[in-house]
Design goal:
295 residues; 8 strands; alpha+beta
Length: 295
């Protein structure tokens, strides 16, 4: 009975205050969630060094809306995780506007052409090729203004995502939780395979000089200030803005920036859209809403 009560208590805490965003193997440094739910994995910072995809200069997504199967039922999700049943994401005519999260999984044949964003750094972080080209242009412009937008976590393979997610599940099972409980807790800090924006190659977690990590205080830096003023010019948006958790489902992540294309990013800014969900029309007020993580 005491253990059951603890599980209910932890679930309640996660519902109210779980971290958000789309991260790799690491968790926020400051959170009201019990520390046992935020253990830091030993592979922090190695998101793309084990990837074997060759960089390419191709400037478009390899797959388009006409070649992707969309709107599949949730029972087509290939992984057996209790309580996890995303539908296959609908790919719009402009594939850079695809919505990926715990509710929407990438199509099975989604395969972005990858390219290193900024070759200055030994980690050689990659994104989808057009996004990578635009990131490099944004990085160069920011550097000229005295802000260094260090790429920390970009593309991550679905195989790596599954490994991260399974390891997190195993850590909770080893603490005595059932598999269903472990999956639920794991999904509060890491997205299931295929459900992370990093799997699409269109997201980048950004850090700053002297900090090889993502930090809650990134929004106090000159890098963040520069991004707020100029990121849309290069097609990037702040994916999980502060105060919009009920819409995005994720807590504020100042480090997580998503490529959607310069035209759409500019239109979002001009027309006052704060969230991607509102812009593409996927948001509808739910009966109940919880804030979760998306790593």
């Amino acid at each position: 009975m005491r253990k059951a009560g603890l599980v209910v208590l932890l679930a309640g805490i996660l519902f109210l205050s779980a971290s958000c965003g789309d991260k790799t193997d690491f968790e926020p440094e400051t959170t009201s969630v019990p520390e046992e739910l935020w253990s830091i994995a030993s592979t922090t910072g190695s998101t793309t060094t084990d990837e074997t995809t060759t960089a390419s200069t191709t400037s478009t997504l390899e797959l388009t809306a006409t070649t992707l199967t969309t709107d599949k039922k949730s029972n087509d999700y290939p992984y057996n995780y209790p309580g996890i049943a995303p539908v296959v994401a609908t790919v719009p005519a402009d594939p850079y506007l695809i919505c990926v999260n715990r509710d929407y999984v990438l199509p099975a044949n989604y395969s972005p052409v990858l390219q290193v964003c900024v070759s200055t750094y030994p980690e050689k972080i990659q994104m989808e090729s057009t996004a990578a080209t635009q990131y490099k242009a944004m990085y160069t412009a920011a550097l000229a203004d005295g802000a260094e937008l260090i790429p920390y976590s970009g593309y991550r393979s679905i195989a790596r995502q599954k490994n991260n997610f399974d390891n997190k599940i195993a850590s909770y099972i080893n603490k005595g939780y059932s598999r269903a409980e472990a999956v639920n807790f794991a999904a509060q800090s890491i997205q299931p395979p295929g459900c992370s924006e990093h799997n699409s190659g269109l997201a980048m977690d950004i850090t700053r000089p002297g900090v090889w990590d993502v930090r809650e205080d990134f929004d106090t830096t000159k890098e963040y200030t520069w991004l707020q003023a100029h990121a849309h010019e290069y097609g990037f948006i702040l994916r999980y803005p502060e105060g919009y958790e009920p819409i995005t489902g994720y807590r504020f992540e100042p480090w997580h920036w998503r490529y959607i294309g310069a035209e759409d990013a500019a239109r979002m800014a001009e027309e006052g859209f704060a969230t991607f969900e509102e812009y593409i029309g996927t948001y509808s007020p739910p009966q109940t809403a919880s804030v979760r993580a998306a790593g």
